[in-house]
Amino acid sequence: MRTSPLLVLLAVPAALLLLSGCATQSLGESERNRLVGKTFVVTGASSGIGRGVALQLGRSGANVVLAARRTKALESLAREIVVAGGTPLVVTTDISRTEDMQHLLNATLERFGRIDGWINNAAVMATGRFEDIPLEDHQRLLDVNLKGTLTGSYLAVRQFRKQGEGVLINVASIDSEVPHTYQASYSASKAGVLSLGRVLNQELRLNKERDIHVVTVMPWAIDTPIWDHAANYTGHQPQMPTMDGPEKPVNAIVRATLYPRQEITVGYKAKLAYWSHRLTPEISDLFSRHAVQKGQVDMNPQVPPTSGNLHTPVETGQGVSGGIRERMREQSEHSEQPQAQPGAAR
Ligand SMILES: NC(=O)c1ccc[n+]([C@@H]2O[C@H](COP(=O)([O-])OP(=O)(O)OC[C@H]3O[C@@H](n4cnc5c(N)ncnc54)[C@H](OP(=O)(O)O)[C@@H]3O)[C@@H](O)[C@H]2O)c1
């Protein structure tokens, strides 16, 4: 029997939609019960995706170790987790500091005795033309996003080998595969995180360690506080018109604790971008550089340069959502309102 090419063309996006829907659904009650009493470390738990993941794990009755630099934000999350039925432990951590990460591991083992899942989610973002971003910002970003994730992966995998099982989840980005214009060091760091996960999987499979899993999660642009936390040297407010809500990556990460897969691209937009970049990289690069120039720079209000939360944490942005889509809607409504004509009656 011959398959029509049109059918194949229609089947590919349909399959992508179906797959992306399943991976981003929240867990059902019986699945949540499987998390009761399990122990998870979540870095970058003080806001955004990490906060959402920690809350969901806590609601499922898990022990959740909350790591980030903003202690007060972690403590308020810990209170929410207690009310929701989970058991939190706050460990103030700068993931770029090896001694902080070692302390995070020790404190977790001291309190809970083992680790079922370690989620390397913390990261920072810097946006601007490569040579306009200060070198110390590029270097700091790599220290946090790549060195911090590598250190967490190292400690987690060694612990999992002792236990004979465990799930390591590294939060990368669609930028791991599709380089993002004006985010050179961020894209490089996320490509590094993806590559790290691939090598770890090769080594684990070589050793036939079937109960140790390494998952790399690649979300699309998500409405979290990261856009207001970012170092920014573009001269314009960083935001993207096609953002997804944080529930998609949050659900995908929580789901991966039970159903680990080596690589998860979150949502149909990330899947389309991933595959179009693999199949036609020149067209994908052309499209993405113009889309970024227009949607992430030209269209947006002007703001002064900032190093954001790279070197020291900022107090703003402690929720799961960043409220960025709402702000873009308001900005676009405002710009669509008819302007008063000179000399018109008032
Ligand atoms: N939002 C997106 O568009 C998007 C898209 C793809 C991938 N991602 C990835 O998703 C993950 C979560 O980001 P998000 O969007 O939720 O952003 P976010 O709200 O800014 O969260 C980042 C978290 O990392 C923590 N962090 C930053 N530097 C740290 C350091 N040196 N040590 C310890 N913790 C640190 C921050 O807390 P403190 O400041 O308190 O330390 C915060 O809790 C990141 O890996 C990001 O790259 C995001």
From TrEMBL:
SMART domains: PKS_KR. InterPro entries: KR_dom (IPR057326), NAD(P)-bd_dom_sf (IPR036291), SDR_fam (IPR002347). Residues 324-336 have a biased composition (Basic and acidic residues). Residues 304-346 are annotated as: Disordered. The keyword Acetylation does not apply. SUPFAM superfamilies: NAD(P)-binding Rossmann-fold domains (SSF51735). It comes from the Bacteria. Residues 1-25 form the signal peptide. It holds the Pfam family adh_short. Keywords: Oxidoreductase, Signal. The keyword Nucleotidyltransferase does not apply. Residues 38-230 form the Ketoreductase domain. Belongs to the short-chain dehydrogenases/reductases (SDR) family. This is SDR family NAD(P)-dependent oxidoreductase. The lineage of its organism: Bacteria, Pseudomonadati, Pseudomonadota, Gammaproteobacteria, Pseudomonadales.
